[in-house]
Structure formats: structure tokens, C-alpha cells
UniProtKB/TrEMBL annotation, chain A:
InterPro entries, alphabetized: Erg6_SMT_methyltransf, SAM-dependent_MTases_sf
Keyword check for Transferase: yes
Keywords: Methyltransferase, Transferase
Protein's name in the database: Methyltransferase domain-containing protein
Signal peptide: none
Pfam family, one: CMAS
One of the protein's GO biological processes: methylation
Source organism: Nocardioides albidus
GO MF annotation, one: methyltransferase activity
Length: 274, 85
């Protein structure tokens, strides 16, 4: 389409996802399955903050910064020196706009987390919130994080994980389920938490946290489903009925994959010797 | 009528085009990373497609996954040398 405007499209998609998932574009960590998804997704950010052990002035690299939601908390609450990177140009603009509106200081640049081009040992913290599953070369991401971390620095990461091996024949058998997930969320690859730990160890980091939080994230799907019902008409206006349908179908599939312990969610942190 | 090998090649190249991979990939290119670039789900989809079309496929019937397009096609018959004219 000649007048197709990717920025406008991204904007509609972002608004639709905000209605479905909340302003943070990530899962929730629920203490009570009935609590609002915004409370739970904020708690996931808080858990990452706890593991990151932040202090004012620390240089933080936010890899896969989305539209800058979590980054705004890091700066507003912990006064860190923040660089957010994402492969999405529109994401960079949106995050800059958010920071300007909130009168926060931070930099956002379009860079690839697996090959950042940033100097060695130039950050105290590397933060990767639910972005690693979109980077197929997982080892390159961890190698790059280890490279840019200064001595004594720390990597914190959380994401969807694979909890068991999925053989080729099983993948083939269940290909329609996985195709729905790909249509809803894009091409992704999930790895076990142990794979992150192995990459970290290979690149000179000492792993100190490796926690499975699948149970605590499981209520996310019901919360998103409730949002899809509540905001049905507005979301259909933004992205159309077919896309909403794919999103809703993906929720039952993910619940099944969580319940049969195929997929889940993990949080991980590692330290560079100081 | 096209040989099964040629028919399979056509099906595969049409599939590659549909999933935005290079439909003109050379026969000896690796199928996965650093080659044609099929991920595991796309490989599973190709496997099912070939079985639907031809009744069997080399991904689900062998112990090891084929590594190149040529190895996939070998499942459907040996390559015929182009005749020198
Ligand atoms: C699910 S969003 C999470 C965003 C944000 N961390 C949050 O929690 O709100 C995933 C992000 O990873 C980014 N991304 C995907 N591949 C990337 C890569 N290779 N390098 C850097 N960012 C990437 C996407 O553009 C998007 O911003």
C-alpha cells in the first residue's frame, strides 16, 4: 500500500497492546491472581530492580527497552544514568517522547543487543526485560552483555523460558499451536534458564540468581483475556478482529504450555568479578 | 510429468517464498542458521507440507535431519545429471 505508514501502524499496535497487556509490555508477577495486571507487571519490574541492586549514578544499559516504560522507573526512582537500546526506530522515538513528557533524562538509541557497538566495560548494569526471546543468537546477547559490563557489574534478565526439550516430532505435531504464538507475538525462541547460565559462565560471569517464576506469571493470561473482553471494540478498531482473535487464541495455548511445563518464565542474574 | 524430485523442489521453493526466505537458495546451502535460515517451527511446517504432498518426508522419517536442500531432494529420487548438449 503506497500510503502505508509503519509509524502509524506501530502506534496503533502499541495502543492496542497497551489495552491488552497494560502500559508495561511484559508479563505480570502475581501475588494474588485477582489483582490488576498493572500491579503485577509493575511487580515484575520491581523484582528485576531488586536483583539489579541499583544506586544513583550507575550506568545502566536497557537492552530491548520497548517504549521505555521500565526505563522510566529506573531513572525516576533510582536516578541511574540510562541508555535504552532497541532495534525498533519507532520504539526509540516513543521512549524519547515518554522521557520528555515525564521530564526525565536518559538516552535511547537504535542498536542490536547482540552487537551493540558500545565500548568494553562501559556499564555497571545490563538489564534485559522480556526481550531475549526475540534474539535468536542468545549466546551473542550474553557475550555482548559480559563485554560491556565493567568489573563488579551485573547482568539481570527475565524472560519466557523453555522448561523441557521439545522434540522435532512433537513440534511438528503441535505446529499449529506454535504458529498461532508466532502470529501473535512474532518469531521467538525460548531457552532453558540453564542455557543462560551456561553462556554467562562461558563469558566470565558468575551466576547468582536463577529462579523459575512460572507459577507467579501464570495468571497473566487470564488477566490479558479479561482485558481483551473489556476493551474488545477499541482493540478491534485499532488492529482488526483477526489480530485480536489470534491474541485471544494464543492465551489458551500459552496456558496449556505453562500447565504441561513446556514453557514458563524465569529470572536470572550474574555478576562480573570486580 | 515432473519427477517427484522436481515436484518436491517446486513445492519447497514455493514454501520458501511464502515464508520470506530466498526461494532461489542454492541446493547446497545449509537449511538452517547461516544458510536458508529455517527455524525449527518452519522446518516442522515444511516437513508436514512435504508429507501431505508426497506421502513421506525426510525430516520425520530419518534419524538425522537433512542439512541441505539437496539432501531433502535426495529423499525423492537421485539427481539426474544434466545432459551435455
Ligand atoms: C516484549 S518487548 C519488551 C520491552 C520492555 N523491556 C518492557 O518490558 O516494556 C521486547 C523488546 O525487545 C526489542 N528487541 C527485539 N530484538 C532486539 C535486538 N536484537 N536488540 C535490541 N532490542 C531488540 C523489541 O524492539 C522490543 O523493544
Amino acid at each position: 500500500m503506497a500510503d502505508y505508514d509503519p509509524a502509524a501502524h506501530y502506534d496503533r499496535v502499541t495502543r492496542a497492546w497497551a489495552l491488552l497487556m497494560g502500559d508495561d509490555l511484559h508479563y505480570g508477577y502475581f501475588e494474588d491472581p485477582a489483582e490488576p495486571v498493572a500491579t503485577a507487571s509493575d511487580r515484575l519490574t520491581s523484582l528485576m530492580i531488586e536483583h539489579a541492586d541499583l544506586a544513583p549514578g550507575l550506568r545502566v544499559l536497557d537492552v530491548g527497552c520497548g517504549s521505555g516504560g521500565p526505563a522510566s522507573r529506573l531513572v525516576a526512582e533510582h536516578d541511574v544514568d540510562l541508555l535504552g537500546i532497541t532495534t525498533s526506530a519507532v520504539g526509540v522515538d516513543t521512549a524519547r517522547g515518554r522521557f520528555a513528557a515525564l521530564d526525565l533524562s536518559g538516552r535511547f538509541e537504535q542498536r542490536d543487543g547482540t552487537d551493540t557497538g558500545l565500548p568494553d566495560a562501559s556499564f555497571d548494569r545490563v538489564w534485559v526485560l522480556e526481550a531475549s526471546h526475540l534474539m535468536p543468537d542468545r549466546e551473542a546477547l550474553i557475550r555482548e552483555a559480559a563485554r560491556v559490563l565493567a568489573p563488579g557489574g551485573r547482568l539481570v534478565l527475565c524472560d519466557i523460558i523453555r522448561r523441557r526439550e521439545i522434540g522435532f516430532l512433537e513440534l511438528r505435531e503441535r505446529r499449529e499451536e506454535f504458529a498461532v504464538l508466532r502470529a501473535a507475538f512474532g518469531a521467538a525462541r525460548m531457552d532453558p534458564l540453564s542455557a543462560y547460565a551456561e553462556h554467562a559462565a562461558r563469558h566470565g560471569l558468575t551466576v547468582d540468581v536463577e529462579t523459575d517464576i512460572s507459577a507467579e506469571t501464570r495468571p497473566t493470561f487470564a488477566a490479558w483475556r479479561a482485558n481483551a473482553e473489556r476493551h474488545h471494540d477499541a482493540v478491534v478498531d485499532l488492529i482488526g478482529a483477526d489480530e485480536l482473535d489470534v491474541f485471544v487464541r494464543s492465551l489458551a495455548i500459552l496456558e496449556g504450555l505453562w500447565d504441561d511445563k513446556t514453557l514458563g518464565y524465569g529470572i536470572f542474574s550474574a555478576r562480573r568479578a570486580g | 510429468m515432473a519427477s517427484p524430485r522436481i515436484a518436491a523442489e517446486n513445492v519447497i521453493r514455493e514454501f520458501l517464498g511464502r515464508i520470506k526466505k530466498d526461494p532461489a537458495s542454492p541446493l547446497d546451502a545449509p537449511l538452517y542458521a547461516d544458510g536458508v535460515g529455517l527455524d525449527s517451527l518452519e522446518t516442522a511446517e515444511l516437513s508436514a507440507l512435504l508429507e501431505d504432498e508426497f506421502g513421506s518426508d525426510p525430516f520425520s522419517s530419518a534419524d538425522e535431519l537433512p542439512q541441505t536442500l539437496a539432501e531433502v531432494l535426495d529423499h525423492y529420487g537421485a539427481a539426474v545429471e544434466a545432459e551435455a548438449v
